[in-house]
Amino acid sequence: MKIVITVLAIALILVAVALLISIRRIKILEKGFKRADETDKMTGLLNRDGFMEQGQLALKSAQNSGELMALIVFDVEELGRINTFFGTDAGDEVVKAFAFAAKAAAGKNGIAGRVNTDDFALLTFCSGEAEAQEIADKFRTAVMGCLNSDTLRESVNFFAGVCDFDGHDDIYTMYNKASLCLFTKDSNKRVNYFTRDMENSMVEKELLRSEMMTALETGQFELYYQPKISFKTGEIRGLEALIRWHHPTKGFVPPSDFIPLAEKSGIITKIDEWGLFTACRQSKAWQDKGMRPVKISVNMSQAQFYRTDVYATISAALAETKLDPKWLEVEVTETMAMQDIDRTINVLGKIRDLGVSVSMDDFGSGYSSLSSLKTLPLDILKIDRSLVCDLDENKVSKKITNAIVELGKAMELVVLAEGVETRGQIDFLTEIGCDLAQGYFYSKPCPAKDIEALLVMPLIGQPIVK
Ligand code: C2E
Ligand code: CA
Ligand code: CA
What is the pTM of this model? Predict the structure, then answer.
């Protein structure tokens, strides 16, 4: 009996040991898979997930040891441009050079990762600004040492955002703070350090962002309308809808303060949709009251423009408000349109197929060539305010404006000058054959009720609202 029990016990122990071994094997295998998941294929560095996971562990031990650490994000400038101009092999060479430099800077005790296509992060011991600067200098030398051609060495640049470990932050917060430094960077400084001021402005922006949603739901936004005047007849030929935010405690918040934020957080598509429906509804209401119909234009953000259902949204707004499409115009900026020209041609074509007009906003402010404009399906060209405001003094601006008007005419477009403020500008623009003016000389953007009075009377080239 004793022997049987002993044999059984030994067998049980053997089974348990075998089980333990196989569990351990599974764990090792799992770890192997995880490693592969956490590695960037091209460079062999940790990827974003891997960096965050290992970084968090390192912060925990720094918390216990009290060692000074910093997270540095190195952002490769214009990697896309390098790919375009020198080819993807050159782009890959640059990425590998940065990976090498990051690995070297991390040494044995630091952690390096490729956290985005063109961002490398480093968590390392660092005693403050002077040491961070030193690390960045060495980083630069290492990158340059890896590149094979002078052209690439001259084209490659980077900025570094740095956030010190304060003993509390987790790795994600530190990464966000270091990235924020790059976002608000001073381009004269390679190394930008995270400061309290930045944090305050970040908190404020975050608050504003969350308030925008409430603003939409509680009717704090309003559309103002700015007239577009015919140089020839002085009549109102159109209105641009421009959003205004009446904030319950801050008062008036200008679009320049919240539109860029809304663009980053994605709320912009909701805001633009609201603007589109509101403008169409308003225009139809004026027409139903018997006022002279004019074209109403709405601004479209990049996010809205690049949505797949953009024309479906426009056609839904027209159907719901029963506005005839010929009274609606969509403004797309030059920079936006030139990002992906094939897509732009396609989307603008579809919008025009609905019977809606399309204008190119801020023309002359970006870098698109006059020839690329020829390929776009457009109705109206809006000359950017920066050119118009120089007309009184700057001969070059006059020449450029003249060329734009000529090109617009050759393409049979209506040409509008934005930001017209002086009689001198009006005289010049009339002389070169520009069709429409929009600007403070005639009227600032006004609330809907003030526009009503203007829509019943023709104008005779005089300032209409001062
Ligand atoms: P934008 O589309 O270029 O609009 C023209 C801006 O120039 C408006 O500023 C207008 O008030 C201003 N302006 C017009 N005439 C003059 C002038 O004679 N002198 C000067 N100094 N300024 C003039 P606003 O209303 O502050 O809007 C700024 C920008 O915000 C707009 O530039 C547009 O890009 C954006 N925005 C406004 N409303 C919306 C909207 O509903 N959706 C989107 N996505 N963007 C909008
Ligand atoms: Ca506009
Ligand atoms: Ca504009």
Answer: 0.67
